[in-house]
Amino acid sequence: MGVHLDLEPFQFDGVPTGRPLVIAGPCSAESKEQVMSTATQLKEMGIQIFRAGIWKPRTRPNTFEGVGIEGLHWLKKVQHELGMLTATEVANANHVFEALKCNVDILWIGARTTANPFAVQEIADALNGVHIPVMIKNPVNPDVELWIGAFERLNQAGIKKLAAIHRGFSSYGKTLYRNDPHWQIPIELKRRIPNVPMITDPSHICGNRDMLLEVSQEAMDLNFEGLIVETHCNPEKALSDASQQITPKEFSVLLSKLILRQATVDNTAISHSLEDLRAQVDKFDDNLLEILCKRMQVSDRIGMVKKENNITVLQSGRWNQLLTKRIQDGVSRGLSEDFVAKVFRAIHEESINHQMKIMND
Ligand code: PEP
Ligand code: MN
Question: Pick from 257, 282, 309: which residue ends a domain?
Fold first, then answer.
C-alpha cells in the first residue's frame, strides 16, 4: 500500500545536494557562548545546518528542560553571523509560534511527540499555510503507521518539504543501544513513501560516542540520505545527553572515515554479474515458496487428524523439540541462530493459523 504525499525535494540553497545531508549541533542550546562556539567550528568544517534543542522533552522532571525562547535569539545569531540554517524541535503550537517568530529555518518533531497524534495535529494546524521544512522523528514505539500518520498530517497542512529522522526505538531493559535501530522500520517507511529523505540520528540510537561511526556507516550502506549528529564544544559538560555528544573535531574525523558507496550500477559487466546472481536468488525463492506451500498442506492434514481425534492444535513439547532441532541443523549449516529461530517461528505460527481454521470450520 503506497502513501501519496505531495512532496518537494528536501534541498536548500547553499547546501550541497550529495549524500550525506549533514545536520549537526548540540542536543540543547545552553548558552550563547556554547551555541556560537559549536556553530563556528561546524561552519569551518563546511556544515551548513545547525541543530539545537530549545525546549527539551526529558523523561524525568527536575532535569535541564531547555533554555526556552532566549535560545531562539542565539539561533538567530548563528543564522546572521555564520550564514547557517538553523533547526529546532517543536512539540506544541506555542513552540511553533515562537520558532516562526524568530525565523528558525527548519523544525523537527521529536520522537515522543510523533507518538501522539493529538500533538502532531496541533503542530500541523499551527503550521497550516506556512512554508517551512519539517523533519519528523520516528515515534518512540516501533510503529511505522504512526510515523506515516505524522507525515500525512503535516502534508495535509501544506508542508511539502518533509524529511524523516531515524532515531531508534525504546525497549525495556539494558541493550546495546539506547534506542534500538530496528533498521527494518525506516526501510519500510522508505518503501511506503519512496521520495522521503531518511536522516539517521546515530546519537540517540547509540546513547554513547563509541558506536556512532558504525551506525552512521550502516545508514550510508542502506543508501539513507543524511545524518544528524549531536556535537558540542565541550561534550563532558553538556547539560543533556552528555555521553553521546562529540566535539566538532571528532565529528569531522567520523565524516572522513565514512565510506560512501554508489547507489546505482553503471558498469555493464558488474550489472550482468549482479543480474546473474539475482536470477539464482529468484529461483531459490521460488523453490522456497513451493516448499512452504507443500509444508502447509501437510500441516493441514495434521490439522484434520487432530480435529477428527479431538487433539489440541498446540503440542508444546513437539514444538520445542522441532525448534531446537531446526536451530541446531541451521547453525551447523552456517546460518545464524537468530535467523533460523525467526523463520521457524513464522512457519509454526502460520501452521497454527491453518490448523485453527480447520478446527473451527
Ligand atoms: C533530540 O534530538 O535532542 C531529542 C530530544 O531527540 P528524540 O526526540 O529523538 O528523543
Ligand atoms: Mn539529545
Answer: 257
Is 324 found in the same domain as 236?
no
Q: Which helix (H) or strand (E) holds 349?
A: helix 337-360
Cα gap 118→92, rounded to integer Å: 10
Output the nine-digit C-alpha cell for 97: 509560534
User: Do residues 7 and 161 lie in contact, with contact meaning Cβ atoms separated by under 8 Å?
Assistant: yes
Determine the pLDDT at residue 1. Answer: 63
For ligand 1, is residue 53 a contact (CB within 6 Å)? yes
For the Cβ of 204 lying below 6 angstroms from any atom of ligand 1, the answer is: yes
pLDDT per position as a tens digit, 23-33? 999 999 999 99
In tens, the pLDDT along 103-134 reads 999 999 999 999 999 999 999 999 999 999 99
Q: Whose CA is nearest to atom 2 of ligand 1?
A: 27
Measured at the CA of 167, the angle between CA 43 and CA 260, to 5 degrees, comes to 60
**243 CA → ligand 2 middle, Å:** 10
Residue 137 near ligand 1, beta carbon < 6 Å: yes
User: Is the CB of 27 inside a 6 Å radius of any atom of ligand 1?
Assistant: yes
131 and 241 fall within a common domain: yes
CA of 330 to the centre of ligand 2 (A): 41
Q: How many other C-beta atoms can be found within 10 angstroms of the C-beta atom of residue 295?
A: 13
Number of structural domains (the chain) is: 2
Backbone angles phi, psi at 228, to 5 degrees: -120, 120
Last residue of a domain, one of 257, 282, 308: 257
pTM of the model: 0.90
pLDDT band for position 222 (50/70/90)?
Answer: very high
The protein residue whose alpha carbon is closest to atom 8 in ligand 1 is 110
Residue-wise pLDDT tens digits, 141-157: 999 999 999 999 999 99
Tell me how far apart the terminal alpha carbons of the chain are, to the nearest angstrom.
Answer: 30
Instruction: Encode pLDDT of 3-48 as tens digits.
Output: 899 999 999 999 999 999 999 999 999 999 999 999 999 999 999 9
CB of 110 within 6 A of ligand 1: the answer is: yes
